[in-house]
Automatic annotation (TrEMBL), chain A:
InterPro entries: DPD_II, FAD/NAD-bd_sf, FAD/NAD-binding_dom, Helical_ferredxn, SudA-like
Pfam families in UniProt: Fer4_20, Pyr_redox_2
Lineage start: Archaea, Thermoproteota, Thermoprotei, Desulfurococcales, Desulfurococcaceae
Species of the source: Desulfurococcus mucosus (strain ATCC 35584 / DSM 2162 / JCM 9187 / O7/1)
Protein name, UniProt field: Sulfide dehydrogenase (Flavoprotein) subunit SudA
Keywords for this protein: Oxidoreductase
UniProtKB/TrEMBL annotation, chain B:
Signal sequence segment: none
Source species: Desulfurococcus mucosus (strain ATCC 35584 / DSM 2162 / JCM 9187 / O7/1)
Superkingdom of source: Archaea
NCBIfam families in alphabetical order: PRK06222.1
Assigned keywords, A-Z: 2Fe-2S, FAD, Flavoprotein, Iron, Iron-sulfur, Metal-binding, Oxidoreductase
Name the UniProt record assigns to this protein: Sulfide dehydrogenase (Flavoprotein) subunit SudB
EC numbers, comma separated: 1.8.1.-
Length: 483, 281
């Protein structure tokens, strides 16, 4: 390889970040990102593996031509880099921030054998940010209309990616969103300090520019029925996510100041309750908070609580640190910011005061047992080990499941016992012309997997629109078992 | 983006406004007992309001809004031609409209606007409808004419006796049941304390009772659980599992406590708003 030998730069160019003491006072972004010079330097470390081999591309669920955009970037051609990324990824400013790159594109980067892997995520982010600040837009040619109309239900990462792909194929696309702002988890779930909402809005503008229509305030199943959509559109894609929070079935769970992470984060992110009373939605500003769970949602909730001014924030997790599902980077960020972690504990009761407000959480200590169905060691309570932790608010972040109410009016749509939508390997549901992807078929997963689903489902939808073929029986595909 | 334009407005009583708003998609699917979530403007909160009436052909919905805090007071200053930024709906399950024989409607204050479409649908279904509508005092009486048009009998109560029967709706309900009326259903909406009392009375008489619950809501589509209530010992979400529930199974004390969760913040928001308004904002 011509770029090998002594010119290889083993070390990553570091990414500037704000200091913890400063950043926990506000909701502004923690990671500041590369300058043009830094980005060009980091991009020049890429060994430029051939596209048909490059392991980074294989690791990206939407198959971004990574060596291609890095080549443009190291020449300082940001527009060229942006156009290459956006051939397959309509939301680079978002994915560059929220993808777990260490498990995806960066995982098998060849550079990892001789030094640090290329910082693909931060470079993708740089390209998007630089382009946004300098008004650089990709040139996209929309082919002539095919006359086919597609309805996308849900404007989260899965729906938006499917919408962009289908639009670029020349189909007419309309997206229906239940909330007042599109973006799904990107606007209500992921906090401003990880993903500024201004960036979400900007990247959604691109979708309207290429002719994707987004209608908000439409709850499919209520405002319109899925049947209405089936008569009016040639195909439907369901990207409705997994938005129903799980609550703990223990005494006191309905005490005041006990939130689902969804409620807490929706108030903070979507409704901007951290700016109350400039914004009308209130939120409690607790002193001592317990966040229950060990995933990314728990980290987001804990770090948001700190920024609201909480003096002590505890993350309570029933397994060990190594078994947390949250991204390592986010756990480190949380630790740096002063979030306290308690492992191998599980709540058994919430204790309320006479006004009904939570005042303590009663915990039981756990030990790890044999692996359960998901292959992870099962936590087992240790009898007699209960103790109390005093708190004045609790945020429950133990997972979400798909909203079943959405599809009540269409019983032919088959669901699994977990409530996810049954699809085959081509994302086809048990209703002809209806496809589904993202958390709606996987249960709670990641932004980029949802985007990958939307991207691949768009191809299946296009194929269906051309052939009209639908199998007599749908063979359920287990997307969770992939990887 | 659809514009939800206000096409008519009327003051029904001090601090109680009736609005007619263009919302064709919602009007097309609305059913009695359902509600909408309203956000007035970019900085606004999302609040639930029950659908009072609607017209699918003309594409409008009607809402009755009592000024109880910042958002509802601000909405009270909206006039014909103004528009509301977001309205989502129709949400919640429709009331189960069936043939019950005699139905007694018990509603307090602005809860009468919640009961109205339900009472109307029950009457159209062939039930004999007795409506008990209660208010604090004479000047707060609303919707009496509307209820007279769709009821077989209307009892108006005022706490101070300044109009109609003196006393609470629950007093009127109690005497009605004691006088031998045997309803197949009692339907109630209004203050939590009233609904709780209605449930206590009808339980003694073994009468099926639905209450339309009014907890705090954020999204109104089942994704957050802010509106959770305990019914028969189980946690349910009022926005998607209700808002109507068997009143004999509802934990009303818990509902009352949860409704008071943001009293302090509500006061702050209102004070700030009143200051802005008085400065001519």
């Amino acid at each position: 390889m011509s770029t090998g030998g002594s010119r290889v730069k083993k070390k990553r160019v570091p990414v500037p970040r704000r200091e913890p003491a400063e950043r926990i006072r506000d909701f502004n972004e923690v990671v500041l990102g590369y300058t043009l010079e830094q980005a060009m330097e980091e991009a020049s470390r890429c060994l430029q593996c051939p596209l048909n081999f490059a392991p980074c591309v294989k690791g990206c669920p939407v198959h971004v031509n990574i060596p291609g955009f890095l080549r443009k970037l190291r020449e300082g051609d940001v527009k060229g880099a942006l156009e290459i990324i956006m051939e397959t990824n309509p939301l680079p400013g978002i994915t560059g921030r929220v993808c777990p790159q260490e498990e995806q594109c960066e995982r098998n980067c060849i550079m990892g054998r001789i030094g640090d892997r290329i910082n693909i995520g931060k470079l993708e982010r740089f390209v998007a940010d630089y382009a946004r600040k300098h008004g650089i837009r990709p040139e996209v040619k929309i082919p002539p209309s095919t006359g086919k109309k597609i309805a996308i239900v849900g404007s989260g990462p899965a729906g938006l990616t499917a919408a962009a792909e289908l639009r670029k194929m020349g189909h007419e696309v309309r997206v229906f969103e239940a909330l007042h702002e599109p973006g799904g988890v990107l606007v209500y779930g992921i906090p401003e300090f990880r993903l500024p909402k201004e960036i979400v809005r900007y990247e959604l503008e691109y979708l309207s520019k290429i002719g994707v229509e987004i209608l908000t305030d439409v709850v499919v199943g209520k405002t319109l029925s899925l049947r209405d959509l089936l008569t009016e559109y040639d195909a439907v894609f369901l990207g409705t996510g997994a938005g129903t929070p799980n609550f703990l079935n223990i005494p006191g769970v309905n005490c005041l100041n006990i939130y689902s992470a969804n409620e807490f984060l929706t108030r903070v992110n979507l409704m901007k309750a951290y700016l109350f009373p400039e914004y009308d939605t209130p939120i409690k500003k607790p002193n001592r908070v317990a966040v229950i769970g060990g995933g990314n949602t728990a980290m987001d909730a804990a770090r948001s609580a700190l920024r609201l001014g909480s003096r002590e924030v505890y993350v309570l997790y029933r397994r060990t640190k190594e078994l947390m599902t949250a991204r390592q980077e986010e756990v480190e960020n949380a630790e740096e910011e002063g979030v306290k972690f308690m492992f191998l504990v599980s709540p058994v009761e919430f204790v309320c005061d006479d006004k009904g407000r939570v005042k303590a959480v009663r915990l039981i200590k756990m030990r790890l047992g044999e692996p359960g169905r998901d292959g992870r060691p099962r936590p087992i309570p240790i009898p007699g080990s209960e103790f109390e932790l005093e708190v004045d608010a609790v945020i429950i972040a133990i997972g979400q499941t798909p909203n079943r109410i959405l599809f009540k009016d269409i019983p032919e749509l088959k669901l699994t016992e977990k409530g996810t939508i049954v699809v085959d390997e081509k994302y086809r549901t048990t209703v002809k012309g209806v496809f589904a992807g993202g958390d709606a078929i996987r249960g709670e997963s990641t932004v980029v997997k949802a985007m990958g689903d939307g991207w691949k489902a768009a191809r299946s939808i296009d194929e269906y629109l051309k052939t009209g073929e639908w199998p007599p029986e749908i063979k359920p595909h287990d997307f969770e078992a992939e990887n | 983006m659809p514009k939800y334009v206000i096409t008519a407005k009327r003051k029904l009583a001090p601090r109680v406004n009736w609005f007619r708003i263009q919302a064709p998609l919602i009007a097309r699917r609305a059913q009695p007992g359902q509600f909408v979530i309203v956000r007035l403007h970019e900085k606004g909160e999302r609040i639930p309001l029950t659908l009072f009436d609607w017209n699918a052909n003309e594409g409008f919905i009607e809402l009755v809004v009592q000024e109880v805090g910042k958002t509802t007071m601000e909405m009270g200053r909206y006039n014909v031609g103004d528009h509301v930024l977001n309205i989502t709906g129709p949400l919640g399950n429709p009331t189960h409209i069936d043939m019950y024989g005699v139905v007694v409607i018990v509603c307090g204050g602005v809860g009468s606007a919640v009961c109205y479409p339900v009472a109307k649908a029950l009457r159209e279904r062939g039930n004999k409808v007795i409506s008990i509508i209660g208010f604090r005092t004479r000047e707060l009486v609303i919707l009496e004419e509307e209820f007279r048009r769709i009821s077989d009998e209307v009892i108006v109560t005022t706490d101070d006796g300044s109009y109609g029967v003196k006393g609470f709706t629950t007093d009127a309900l109690r005497s009605l049941l004691e006088s031998g009326v045997k309803p197949g259903l009692v339907y109630t909406a209004g203050p939590v304390i009233m609904m709780k009392k209605v449930a206590e009375i009808t339980r003694r008489h073994g009468v099926l009772t639905y209450a339309s619950l009014n907890p705090i809501m954020v999204d109104g589509t089942g994704m957050c659980g802010a509106c959770r209530v305990t019914v028969e010992g189980r946690t349910v979400f009022a926005c998607v599992d209700g808002p109507d529930f068997d009143a004999h199974k509802v934990d009303f004390d818990e509902l009352a406590k949860r409704l008071a969760q943001y009293t302090e913040e509500e006061r702050i928001a209102l004070e700030k708003y009143l200051n802005t308004v008085s400065r001519g904002g």
